[in-house]
Amino acid sequence: MEPDLPHSIEPVSDYYSMITTCIPRNEDIAKELDVIKKEIIGNPELELSIADMSEKVHVSSCHMIRKFSVENGLTPHKFQMQCRVRKAQ
After folding, report:
1. Which end of the chain is more exposed for a tag (fewer CB within 10 A), N or C?
2. What is the 3-state secondary structure (H, E, C) of 12-74?
3. Domain tally for the chain?
């Protein structure tokens, strides 16, 4: 199904019907998460809060943490701590 294409779902009963629209995935968040990742790697000592990071990618904190974890295998905080330890070593 193509993005932004309205389509209907067959009603289960006479009391329920729905019209839905598929929306395209936001690929920009992946690019923005790469920017955040590079910023953490380059300057792990910076105090980047989850709120600051999520504001940069324009999504909620919970969504940003989930996406970052899926793409990098660690939460942003754990990734930042790992980078700090590596720099200290």
Report:
1. C
2. EECCEEEEEECCCCCCHHHHHHHHHHHHHHHCCCCCCCHHHHHHHHCCCHHHHHHHHHHHHCC
3. 1
Q: Does some domain include residue 62?
A: yes
Q: Give ∠ CA 87-73-55 in degrees, rounded to 5.
A: 80
Running along the chain, 89 residues long, what does each successive block of 10 average in pLDDT? 58 60 62 89 91 87 91 91 91
**What predicted TM-score, i.e. pTM, was given to this entire model?**
0.66
Report if residue 30 sits inside a domain. yes
CA atoms within 13 A on the CB side of 64: 22
List the end-to-end C-alpha distance of the chain, in Å, as a whole number.
50
What CATH number is given to the structural domain containing 33? Answer: 1.10.10
Q: Note down the domain range covering 62.
A: 26-88
Does residue 69 lie in a domain region?
Answer: yes
